[in-house]
Amino acid sequence: MYADLLKKLFVPRQKILNYYTNYHLSMNSIRQRICWRCGTELEFWDYCSQFNDDEIEQAITLWQDDRIEFYCCECFKLKETELKKKSNVEVVSDSSSHSNNF
To answer: Which pLDDT band holds residue 95 (cuts at 50, 70, 90)?
Structure first.
């Protein structure tokens, strides 16, 4: 019953631990992250649990990159909603400007 949940939580952790062991890195070297928008602390394990096994290395690389900022789930949903609204406004304004040409 809980096998999928255990696999989702355990496998990424084991892959990450293996990755760090293979490259002689310390788990203490994982960056602490906060949401770019609201400042909520982001959890590394939650972030990694969203990736497939073969994506863990790339996920860690992104997390550790100083040039990349992350949103928490709530801010991401809010941003996604804002982008959809903006996109709809642009489509409506584009279509109304074309109708004036005829």
So the answer is: low
Distances (CA, A) of 62 to 1, 70, 82, 94, 98: 32, 10, 24, 36, 42
Can you tell me the distance from the alpha carbon of 31 to that of 54, in angstroms, rounded to the nearest whole number?
A: 21
Beta-sheet pairing, 33-34 with 41-42: antiparallel
**Structural contact between residues 10 and 48, judged by C-beta atoms closer than 8 angstroms:** no
Q: Which of 75, 77, 79 is nearest to 87 (CA)?
A: 79
State how far the Cα of 40 lies from the Cα of 64, in Å rounded to an integer.
18
pLDDT digits (tens, 9 = 90+) for 13-72: 677 777 667 665 666 788 899 999 999 999 988 888 788 777 878 888 899 999 999 999
Please state the domain extents for the chain: 3-99
Taking the C-alpha atoms of residue 57 and residue 20, their distance in angstroms, rounded to an integer, is 10
